[in-house]
């Protein structure tokens, strides 16, 4: 794997200095947002082992399948609440754009994180069903290019 690329989470930092050390276990996520970003990157990498490890043992599903036909396009952190190093709980609201079979969509979730054994883990989240919409060809492309969808990722 060529790690000399920008991190998939959109931080603007190289993957090898951002999410990859968290995913490999070399460092712990210091905040709920850092864990959220690393989980997004793990979904892109189809790394179900890390996703399971970073999920609360209370809520982790028995069957965890990274959808190979789903291609994640971009991540936007909308807001965070608590979830800092000194906190026990945190909330991260995000919008993740994806493409399935050439159709672009968005997942809008308010995720809850907790500390278990002094490590941040994903507990659960509420998704906004209205945000699970397809994007029209003339909409701005959710990848952030500033172009229309039909001229960019469409």
3D structure, described in words:
- The chain has 154 residues and is an alpha+beta fold.
- It has a single domain (15-151), classed as Nuclear Transport Factor 2, Chain: A.
- Helix content is 16%, strand content 31%.
- It has helices spanning 20-24, 32-44, 48-53, and strands spanning 70-82, 89-100, 103-116, 119-127.
- A 4-stranded antiparallel β-sheet has the order 1-2-3-4, with helices on one face.
- The longest helix is centred in the N-terminal third of the chain and has 13 residues, at 32-44.
- The protein is globular and about 45 Å long.
- The mean pLDDT is 88.
Strand order in the largest sheet: 1-2-3-4
Following the backbone from N to C, one meets helices and strands in this order, namely HHHEEEE
Instruction: Describe the largest sheet.
Output: 4 strands, antiparallel
What fraction strand?
25-35%
Per DSSP, the total helix count is 3
- CATH class membership: Alpha Beta
How far is the first residue's CA from the last residue's CA? 27 Å
> Quick one: how many beta strands?
4
Number of domains: 1
Enter the CATH topology name.
Nuclear Transport Factor 2, Chain: A
* Mean pLDDT over the residues: 88
| Rg over C-alpha atoms, rounded to the nearest angstrom | 16 Å
Backbone structural class: alpha+beta
**What would CATH call the architecture?**
Roll
Helix content: 10-25%
Q: Low-confidence spans: pLDDT under 50, at least 5 residues? A: none
Shape: globular
């Amino acid at each position: 794997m060529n790690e000399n690329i920008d991190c998939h989470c959109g931080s603007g930092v190289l993957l090898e200095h951002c999410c990859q050390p968290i995913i490999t276990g070399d460092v712990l996520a210091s905040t709920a947002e850092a864990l959220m970003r690393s989980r997004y990157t793990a979904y892109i990498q189809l790394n179900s082992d890390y996703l399971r490890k970073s999920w609360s043992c209370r809520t982790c599903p028995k069957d965890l399948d990274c959808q190979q036909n789903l291609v994640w396009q971009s991540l936007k952190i909308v807001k965070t609440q608590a979830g800092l190093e000194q906190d026990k709980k945190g909330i991260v609201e995000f919008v993740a754009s994806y493409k399935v079979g050439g159709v672009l969509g968005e997942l809008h979730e308010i995720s809850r994180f907790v500390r278990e054994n002094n490590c941040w883990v994903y507990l659960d989240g509420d998704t906004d069903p209205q945000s699970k919409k397809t994007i029209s060809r003339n909409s701005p492309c959710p990848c952030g290019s500033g172009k229309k969808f039909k001229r960019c990722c469409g």
